[in-house]
Design a protein that fits this description.
Layout lengths: L6 H8 L16 E5 L2 E4 L4 E4 L2 H4 L8 H13 L11 H13 L4 E7 L2 H18 L6 E5 L8 H6 L17 E3 L7 H12 L3 E6 L3 E2 L5 E2 L2 H13 L4 E4 L14 H4 L5 E4 L11 E6 H7 L18 H13 L2 H22 L4 E7 L2 E6 L10 H11 L2 E2 L6 E4 L7 H16 L2
Parallel strand pairs: 3-15, 5-6, 5-7, 7-10, 10-11
Antiparallel strand pairs: 1-2, 2-3, 4-12, 8-9, 11-12, 13-14, 14-16
Helix pairs in contact: 3-11, 4-11, 5-10, 7-8, 12-14
The protein binds pyridoxal-5'-phosphate.
């Protein structure tokens, strides 16, 4: 699309982009529209969105059902304060989420995004104990986890490059080791033995440590963490912001282990990736600890756009698309990933190829691991030049595509990775 408006120079002058070093990064790609699994640029290129635009897009961009639901809802009720008021999309969505969620989760608290869904979960867990007159303040969290960029979410995330400038301002947590290569269950047992009565909650990214390097951990460990926390009356928070809505195969990653957490954080794919929305699902017992004739027991938390009706309508449309045929599409992607993972593993320098549902990840051997590894920007550029959007986490490369991606689309992404690895 040609435009009189000079996006490039106006953006360059006025906009500050996320996770972007403006002193180094190439100018951003100007996207004029998106459809299905493809982004269309202002200069006429098509780019396969192999990372689902930061892991949010489920059914493809601009899905007609979701777009129509948004348009219809925007014309009827676009926004209303959610304290003292409610509306059909929020009530319906809460019921639909609870219907699909692991058993026992019975209440939905809405927020804006993944970070706020986590903030809400941590605040609910902390205040729950206080409401019951118990002094439990310690949150236990996994090393290498990522839960978001707000202060509470950073506090419970693994510490490192992203959190370092803020470390004096983050609250202390009991750090459990990365469950991929450590015995997290033994560590949790040990922690409970020494500080069990202080623990307010354990927070995990079930099955998949996403931003920490697409690290996949076992259903057995997750089940054991659930068993231990349940036995000791410690609320378990499952951060399913990335893993929810079929991303790892089943509707929620907790299903791999057949477990039900006490709190569950959702966002990203909640609206099919069309609009921002967060939700924290909780067990009734936690909710009931706040219900009182004492106003001090209120959960004093809310956002201007809590339960925005348009976002809720988009989420309802997305949920209705997560039907059986979507499960079949996800299985097809998983099969394609498994074949590709075998093939890519044979390339020199490629290691640790792994698949969980619609997520394929591998490492390229190249100096020290970590987010600043040069493989990241270099493969990003290589792929972009070939019409594929990849956004490696350092030397961890992953493909996390929209569910509408065809076998040909996927083959393109695998091909770009193979070409990059072979050329090294
Ligand atoms: C597991 C997990 N939790 C929380 C977040 C934060 O979500 P948001 O970026 O929407 O704040 C992310 C984002 O990548 C995530 O992967």
């Amino acid at each position: 699309m040609t435009s009189q408006f000079d996006v490039r120079s106006v953006d360059d002058r006025f906009v500050w982009h996320p996770y972007t070093q403006h002193g180094l990064n190439q100018p951003p790609v100007i996207v004029s529209r998106a459809q299905g699994a493809y982004l269309h640029t202002d200069d006429g290129r098509r780019i396969f969105d192999a990372v689902s635009s930061w892991w949010v897009t489920l059914h493809g961009h601009a899905h007609p059902k979701i777009s129509a639901a948004i348009a219809e809802q925007a014309a009827r009720l676009e926004q209303v304060i959610f304290a003292g008021f409610t509306h059909e999309p929020a009530a319906r969505l809460a019921a639909e989420l609870i219907r699909r969620a692991p058993a026992g989760l019975q209440r939905v608290f809405y927020s804006d995004d993944g970070s706020t869904a986590v903030e809400v979960a941590v605040k609910i867990a902390l205040q729950y104990h206080r409401n019951r007159g118990q002094d439990r303040r310690l949150v236990a969290a996994l090393d290498n986890a990522y839960h978001g960029d707000t202060f509470g979410a950073m506090s419970v995330s693994g510490r490192g490059l992203f959190t370092e400038p803020f470390s004096p301002h983050l609250f202390d947590v009991a750090r459990l080791p990365d469950p991929v290569d450590h015995d997290v269950v033994a560590a949790l047992e040990q922690l409970i033995a020494t500080r069990g009565r202080e623990i307010a909650a354990v927070i995990v990214e079930p099955m998949l440590l996403g931003a920490g390097g697409m690290r996949m951990w076992s259903a057995d460990s997750l089940r054991a963490v659930r068993d231990l926390t349940a036995t000791h009356g410690i609320p378990l928070i499952a951060d399913e912001v990335l893993t929810g809505f079929g991303r790892t195969g089943p509707m929620f990653a907790c299903e791999h282990a057949g477990i039900s957490p006490d709190l569950m954080c959702l966002s990203k794919g909640l609206t099919g990736g069309a609009l921002p929305l967060g939700a924290t699902l909780v067990r009734e017992e936690l909710f009931e600890s706040f219900r009182s004739d004492d106003r001090r027991r209120t959960l004093f938390h809310g956002h201007s756009f809590t339960a925005n009706p348009v976002a809720c309508a988009a989420a309802l449309a997305s949920l209705s698309l997560l039907d059986d045929s979507c499960a079949a599409e996800r299985s097809r992607i998983e099969r394609a990933h498994r074949c590709a993972s075998e093939r890519l593993s044979t390339l020199p320098g490629v290691c640790n190829a792994r698949v969980l549902g619609t997520v394929l990840a591998l490492e390229i051997e190249s100096g020290p691991d970590g987010y600043l590894n040069a493989v990241g920007p270099s493969l990003h550029r290589h792929a972009l030049d070939r019409g594929v959007l990849l956004r490696p986490l350092g030397n961890t490369i992953y493909v996390l595509p929209p569910y509408c991606s065809t076998d040909e689309d996927l083959a393109r992404a695998y091909g770009v990775i193979a070409e990059f690895a072979s050329a090294r």
